[in-house]
Specification:
By secondary structure, the chain is α/β, with parallel strands linked by helices. Helices cover about 40% and strands about 15% of the residues. It has a 7-stranded parallel β-sheet with strand order 3-4-2-5-6-1-7, sandwiched between helices. The chain has a 7-stranded parallel β-sheet with strand order 10-11-9-12-13-8-14, with helices on both faces. GO terms for molecular function: ATP binding; ATP hydrolysis activity; RNA helicase activity; RNA strand annealing activity.
Length: about 525
C-alpha cells in the first residue's frame, strides 16, 4: 500500500479527529501495518525501534475499539517511568475526543494517590511492571476482564530484570485478552514469552532497519529548551547562512506557524504540506529550485520526491515520527556527491530517541553548541569582508569613489566603514537577540566514579537501572564510560544528592557499589 491515509485504516471518527489535530498526514510503516491487524482482533508481535510511532500504532486501534463498562480495559507496561509518562501523554492526545480515562502508575510517586485514582474508575493504565504488580497485590488493579495488554519495549524490560514481574502480570490477566508485544530485538526470552502468553495465530510484524552508509551528509544536533527552539533555529541559520535549506516540521500546523514566524522576521521562506493544492506546491518547489526562495519548510509527506541538487542544509525543527523519515529527510542534502549538513533540534526528553535513531541508522550525530551572538557577529563580519574583497576585484565600485572622497572630508573613513557594516549586519540579522548565549535544557553535569565495571557484568542498562532507584530520568544521565574494574557516569548536578543517598552502597550483580564524585577526567 502506498500513500495510504489514516482514514483508510478503519479507525473511528473521534480517533481520526484527534490524529488530524495532532497534524499527522500519513501513517508510519509500523502504524500502517499494525493498526488494521489489531482492529481485526489479532495478537501482534511488533519488531520496531524507538521513534517509529509505536504508541499511535497501538493506541489508535485500542481507543477505537475500547468497550463500555467499569472494568480496566487496557494495560500498557513500559520499562521506565519516563517512557510510561511519554506513552500516557501520547494516548491522552489520541483520546482527546473520546471519553477514555487514562492513568499512569509508576514508582517514585505516592501509591495512595494512585490507588484513589484507580478506584475512581479508569479505562487504560500505563505503568511500570513493579508498580503495576504492587497495585495488583493490593487488590486495586483487577485484570480479570482486561481486553488489551501491551508490552512496550519488551527487550528493555527483560534487560532491566522485570521478567518475573511481567510473567506474574500476564498469568493473572484475562486469557481472552488481545496481546501486543513491541520489541526492538527478538532474543530467545522474548520468543518464549510470546509463545507462552500469546495466541498461536499471532502475527509478527517487523519494520526493517534503515542504515546510512557512505553518506556525504554531516549530522549534528542542538539540545534546546522548547521555548528557545525558534531562536535556536534563527541563530543557526544566521551563522551558517545556508544557500538553500529544507526545514522539516512534524505537523501541518507546525509548518504554517514556522512559516509565519520566519516571514515576519524577513526570511525568504514558504511552506509545503498536504493541505495545500498541487499547483501551490509545484509553484513553491519551482521557486525553491530557481533560488528565489532560501528556505522551504515542509512535512515529510509534502517533501516526498523533492529532488533539488543545491540543498546545503536539512534542519529537523521537529524530530521525525520515525527513523525512516529521518533517513529520507537528511537524504534531501548531500546530493550528487556534494557535502551536506543535517541539523536536528532536540529537547532533553527527546535526546534518547535521537540516540536510538543514531544506533538504528548507524550514522554519527554529533552534538553542537547553540551559536552565541558573538558567533553570529563574527560569521557576518567574515561574510561582509569576503563580499568587499570580491567587489574590490572588479571595477563597479570605482564610480562611488568621488562620493566617498566627499565623505572623507567630513568623517573618519574607518567610522564610515563601520557604519556601513552595521547597516548590513542589522539588515541580515532578523531576530532581536537579547542574550549572548542561550543554554541547553541540561543542568550542570557531575562526573561520578562507580566501583563496578565490565568484570562485574555491568553494562549501561545496569547502571541506568541502579540510578533509577534514585528516580533519575534518562535525560539526567550523560556519558557512561565502562572499564574493567570501575565505571564513570555523568549526571545532572541536581540529582547528585538523591543518587548518593539512594544508590551508594547498593548491590549490582552481587557486588556492593561505592559511588564518589570523580576528581576529574
Amino acid at each position: 500500500m502506498e500513500n495510504i491515509k489514516f482514514k483508510e485504516l478503519g479507525l473511528n471518527e473521534n480517533v481520526l479527529k484527534s490524529i488530524d489535530e495532532m497534524g499527522f498526514e500519513e501513517p508510519s510503516k509500523i502504524q500502517e501495518k499494525v493498526i488494521p491487524v489489531l482492529l481485526e482482533g489479532h495478537d501482534v508481535i511488533g519488531q520496531a525501534q524507538t521513534g517509529t510511532g509505536k504508541t499511535l500504532a497501538f493506541g489508535a486501534p485500542v481507543i477505537s475499539n475500547i468497550p463500555k463498562g467499569n472494568h480496566i480495559k487496557c494495560l500498557v507496561l513500559a520499562p521506565t517511568r519516563e517512557l510510561a509518562i511519554q506513552v500516557n501523554d501520547e494516548l491522552a492526545r489520541i483520546a482527546k475526543h473520546s471519553k477514555t480515562r487514562i492513568l499512569p502508575v509508576y514508582g517514585g510517586q505516592p501509591i495512595d494517590r494512585q490507588i484513589k485514582a484507580v478506584k475512581r474508575g479508569v479505562d487504560i493504565i500505563v505503568g511500570t511492571p513493579g508498580r503495576v504488580l504492587d497495585l495488583i497485590n493490593k487488590k486495586v488493579i483487577d485484570l480479570s476482564k482486561l481486553n488489551f495488554l501491551i508490552l512496550d519495549e519488551a527487550d528493555e524490560m527483560l534487560n532491566m530484570g522485570f521478567i518475573d514481574d511481567i510473567e506474574s502480570i500476564l498469568k493473572g490477566a484475562n486469557k481472552e485478552r488481545q496481546t501486543l508485544l513491541f520489541s526492538a530485538t527478538m532474543p530467545a526470552e522474548i520468543k518464549k514469552l510470546a509463545k507462552r502468553y500469546m495466541k498461536p495465530e499471532s502475527q509478527h510484524i517487523s519494520i526493517v532497519k534503515n542504515t546510512i552508509t557512505g553518506s556525504t551528509v554531516s549530522q549534528f544536533y542542538f539540545e534546546v529548551k522548547n521555548k528557545d527552539r525558534f531562536e535556536t533555529l534563527c541563530r543557526v541559520i544566521d551563522v551558517d547562512e545556508p544557500t538553500a535549506a529544507i526545514i522539516f516540521c512534524k505537523t501541518k500546523r507546525g509548518v504554517d506557524e514556522l512559516v509565519e514566524s520566519m516571514q515576519s522576521r524577513g526570511y525568504s521562506v514558504e511552506g509545503m504540506h498536504g493541505d495545500m493544492t498541487q499547483n501551490h506546491r509545484m509553484n513553491t518547489l519551482r521557486k525553491f529550485k530557481e533560488g528565489s526562495l532560501e528556505f522551504l519548510i515542509a512535512t515529510d509527506v509534502a517533501a516526498r520526491g523533492i529532488d533539488v541538487e543545491n540543498v546545503s542544509h536539512v534542519i529537523n525543527y521537529d524530530l521525525p515520527q520515525d527513523t525512516e523519515s529521518y533517513v529520507h529527510r537528511i537524504g534531501r542534502t548531500g546530493r550528487a556527491n556534494r557535502e551536506g549538513i543535517a541539523y536536528t533540534l532536540v529537547t532533553a526528553r527527546e535526546y534518547m530517541t535521537l540516540k536510538q535513531i543514531e544506533r538504528t541508522t548507524k550514522g554519527k550525530i554529533k552534538r553542537k553548541e547553540i551559536p552565541t551572538i558573538d558567533d553570529i557577529f563574527y560569521a557576518k563580519y567574515k561574510n561582509i569582508c569576503e563580499r568587499v574583497q570580491e567587489t574590490l576585484n572588479g571595477e563597479d565600485y570605482k564610480k562611488f569613489v568621488p562620493m566617498v572622497t566627499e565623505l572623507d572630508e567630513e568623517y573618519n573613513l574607518i567610522e564610515v566603514s563601520a557604519a556601513l557594516m552595521s547597516m548590513i549586519y542589522s539588515k541580515e540579522v532578523s531576530f532581536d537577540y537579547t542574550k549572548n548565549s542561550i543554554g541547553s535544557s541540561k543542568s550542570k553535569q557531575v562526573r561520578l566514579f562507580l566501583s563496578v565495571g565490565k568484570i562485574d557484568r555491568v553494562n549501561p542498562k545496569t547502571i541506568l537501572s541502579l540510578l533509577n532507584q534514585a528516580n533519575v530520568y534518562k535525560e539526567d544521565v550523560g556519558e557512561i564510560d565502562l572499564f574493567d574494574k570501575f565505571s564513570f557516569v555523568d549526571v545532572s548536578e541536581r540529582v547528585l544528592t538523591s543518587i548518593m543517598d539512594k544508590c551508594n552502597g547498593k548491590r549490582v550483580n552481587g557486588r556492593r557499589v561505592r559511588i564518589e564524585v570523580a576528581k576529574g577526567r
